[in-house]
Amino acid sequence: MLIKREKLTSINNAIEKIKTKTNFTISTKYKILKIQDFLKKEFEIFYTLVQELQKKYNGTFDENGSIKFPEENMKLVNQELFAFNQEEISFPDIYFSLDEFEKEEFSWEEIEAIIMFIK
């Protein structure tokens, strides 16, 4: 399935909350972990891009560990980050049935973030 990278953070946040729930079979837990593994690899790609942008656009680290870019480079950095987040990526075909989630309560945000995985 194709999704935009900009959705990865909300999916990851939902997966983290879902992992705190307990009434899942081993099969459902396996699927959740597979999704989380994919997300981890995608976030590593993002961190690599940020490091490249830091070098390319003379970013420096502040006392909190955040990267600061010179004002004249901010527009270019933002354009590259926006383009990156708009890219569609091939997400693994991992699906859940409604029955797998029947025994748990979910927030609207959690459901919205994972609805693409429910068949």
Any key phrases for this structure?
4 strands; single chain; two-stranded antiparallel sheet; 119 residues; mainly alpha
Evaluate the radius of gyration: 18 Å
Helix percentage: 40-55%
Biggest pleated-sheet summary: 2 strands, antiparallel
* Tally of separate helices: 4
User: Which strand order does the major sheet show?
Assistant: 1-4
The ordered H/E elements are EHHEEHEH
- Strand content is 5-15%
Structure summary, number of beta strands: 4
Task: Walk me through this protein's architecture.
This protein is mainly alpha-helical and 119 residues long. It has helices spanning 8-18, 26-56, 71-86, 108-114, and strands spanning 2-4, 60-61, 67-68, 88-90. It is built from four helices and four strands; from the N terminus they run βααββαβα. The relative contact order is 0.23.
In short:
Helix content is 55%, strand content 8%.
Topology readout:
Elements: E1 2-4, H1 8-18, H2 26-56, E2 60-61, E3 67-68, H3 71-86, E4 88-90, H4 108-114
Antiparallel strand pairs: 1-4, 2-3
Helix pairs in contact: 1-2, 1-4, 2-3
